[in-house]
Amino acid sequence: GEGSGAALAMPIVEAACAMFHNMGELAASNIVLPEGNANAT
């Protein structure tokens, strides 16, 4: 039922939140985007 599906989904949701929270930023990781990238600011 819905209850067992929610119980099984929670670890996946928590892992996704932890990954998003612990992601670094490009500047902090010393990553330089190539020239001509339309998404670069």
Automatic annotation (TrEMBL):
<dbReference type="InterPro" id="IPR023195">
    <property type="entry name" value="Nict_dMeBzImd_PRibTrfase_N"/>
</dbReference>
<comment type="pathway">
    <text>Nucleoside biosynthesis; alpha-ribazole biosynthesis; alpha-ribazole from 5,6-dimethylbenzimidazole: step 1/2.</text>
</comment>
<keyword id="KW-0169">Cobalamin biosynthesis</keyword>
<protein>
    <recommendedName>
        <fullName>Nicotinate-nucleotide--dimethylbenzimidazole phosphoribosyltransferase</fullName>
        <ecNumber>2.4.2.21</ecNumber>
    </recommendedName>
</protein>
<dbReference type="GO" id="GO:0009236">
    <property type="term" value="P:cobalamin biosynthetic process"/>
</dbReference>
<keyword id="KW-0808">Transferase</keyword>
<comment type="similarity">
    <text>Belongs to the CobT family.</text>
</comment>
<dbReference type="GO" id="GO:0008939">
    <property type="term" value="F:nicotinate-nucleotide-dimethylbenzimidazole phosphoribosyltransferase activity"/>
</dbReference>
<keyword id="KW-0328">Glycosyltransferase</keyword>
<dbReference type="Pfam" id="PF02277">
    <property type="entry name" value="DBI_PRT"/>
</dbReference>
<dbReference type="InterPro" id="IPR036087">
    <property type="entry name" value="Nict_dMeBzImd_PRibTrfase_sf"/>
</dbReference>
<dbReference type="InterPro" id="IPR003200">
    <property type="entry name" value="Nict_dMeBzImd_PRibTrfase"/>
</dbReference>
